[in-house]
Amino acid sequence: MSQFIESIKVEDQEIFLLEFHQKRINQTFSHFGKEGSIDLKKIYNHLEHDEDGLFKLRLVYDLDKKVRTQMIPYAIPEIADFQLVENNSYDYSFKFEDRKELDKMKMKAKAEEIIIVKNNHITDTSFSNLLFLKGKDWFTPSTYLLNGVQRQNLLKHKKIKEAEITLQNIKQFSHFQLINALNDFDDMFVYPIDRIINLPDNEEYLDI
Questions:
Q1: Do 157 and 140 form a contact (C-beta atoms < 8 A)?
Q2: Cα–Cα distance, 12 to 175 (Å, whole number)
Q3: What span, in angstroms and rounded, lies between the C-alpha atoms of 157 and 196?
Q4: Chain segment 176-193, per-residue pLDDT in tens
Q5: Which of 68, 107, 140, 208 shows the smallest number of beta carbons within 10 Å?
């Protein structure tokens, strides 16, 4: 049976974006024709987590409502370089635990992290959604692979906008950043666009 995963931010004993994580879990059960769901708040309270600091609550579950949890200390990674990698068939619309295809793409890449290109459109990295800066505004690709909880939260609060971001227009943006449940919208972790080693006019573009 397929297993699914949620990575949830817990900081100073407070759990973040619970409503969005719960909604995604509910949608997963519903999509696969299963009644009911699992209750994240109950699971978290049962853990009796009493440490301050930043943690990732890693929750693995299946459609029979079997759940495994880990509470892992977390630090936001700083990434040396990125590579555009083309994969027109990859689908990650549900947060499956199985990441073999993602790992395979990363292993072939010449950079520390990948940005997946699907049908000429920018999607996500292997572990996050993306934001791109143009002028003073931040945009997220409308062609995401997974509609992440932080992405939904920032759109809901109108802090970012959606845009079609392609190989043709990516160089119109000056900087980018990574967002997910653990990585907030944060000006401290912003990368210049040329941190992507194979921008479209480079000879090595998509050559892996």
A1: no
A2: 31
A3: 29
A4: 999 999 999 987 789 999
A5: 107
Q: Are 116 and 125 in contact (CB under 8 A)?
A: yes
Which one-letter amino acid corresponds to residue 73? Answer: P
Asked if 172 contacts 134 with a C-beta cutoff of 8 angstroms, the reply is: yes
- As a whole number of angstroms, the distance between CA 115 and CA 85 comes to 6
Output the pTM of the full model: 0.91
Phi, psi of 46 (to 5 degrees): -65, -25
Give the pair of three-digit tokens for residue 186: 């944060």
CB 6 within 8 A of CB 24: yes
- In the block, tokens 């947060």 appear at 95
Which three-class secondary structure state does DSSP give residue 63? Answer: coil
- Crossing angle of helices 18-31 and 149-156, in 10° steps, is 120
Separation between Cα atoms, residue 140 and residue 179, nearest integer Å: 10
* Residue whose C-alpha is closest to residue 58's, from 94, 29, 97, 98: 97
With tokens 């921008």, the residue in question is 199
Q: Do strands 137-141 and 129-134 pair parallel, antiparallel, or not at all (unpaired)?
A: antiparallel
Split at pLDDT 50, 70, 90, the class of 204 is very low
| 69-81 confidence digits (pLDDT tens) | 999 999 988 999 9
Q: How many CB atoms lie within 10 A of CB 52?
A: 9
